[in-house]
Amino acid sequence: MDDDSLLLRSVQDPGAFATLVGRHQAAVHGYLVRRAPPAAPDLLGEVWVRAFAARSTFDPARGWLFGVARHVLLAHWRAVRPAPAPFPTELAAPDEWPAVDERLTAAAAAPRLRAALAALAPVERELLLLVTWEQLTPQEAATAVGIPRGTARSRLHRARLAMRDHLTDVTTHDDRTGERA
Fold first, then answer.
1. Which tens digits make up the pLDDT trace of 139-178?
2. Domain RNA polymerase sigma-70 region, which positions (predicted)?
3. 156 contacts 128 by C-beta, under 8 angstroms
């Protein structure tokens, strides 16, 4: 049974909601871990509680689940700090030896990526992260953020250009001479 049918069925048969949880638990957890690592397990529970409580009001044709997760995350950020950071600010502990080289490369690039992400407008940053990290379509990301699809596509395009320009500017700059390469 597809997600839309399960969501509609869960209004009459609450047990059907458990199948939705099983299908999407890992994806929603990943979304939360990448944005609020220490709080992710608690936030995940809150997402499911809110989604279950409001399941009769959701339009199953729309990407409702990441919208619920986003609202839970925003409420968490408002509660814990005044200026939310939509991406982790600390690197995770390094992996064992087989992944050390990959982690070192990623660690070297992380400050540039963080700076480029921080330079984006909040909605553009969220759209970009939903599409790249969560593998949502631009239409699904638009629904999760609560903006029209056309607006989301143009903002996503703008975010991608800004990231490319920022990262190109940083990577073509010669640190030894202070000049562009």
1. 999 999 999 999 999 999 999 999 998 888 654 544 444 4
2. 20-79
3. yes
The CA distance from 160 to 124, in Å, is 9
Give the right CATH number for 97-181 from 3.30.1490.20, 1.10.10.10, 3.40.30.10, 3.40.50.620. Answer: 1.10.10.10
> Is-contact 84 77, C-beta < 8 A?
yes
The whole-angstrom separation of Cα 95 and Cα 99 is: 6
The top-level CATH class assigned to 1-85 is mainly alpha
Question: What value, to the nearest 5°, has the Cα angle with vertex 94 and ends 97 and 76?
Answer: 155
Contacts of 28 (CB under 8 A, 6+ apart): 44, 47, 65, 66, 69
What distance in Å separates the CA atoms of residue 157 and residue 135, rounded to the nearest whole number? 16
CA dihedral sign, ordered 61, 74, 28, 115: positive
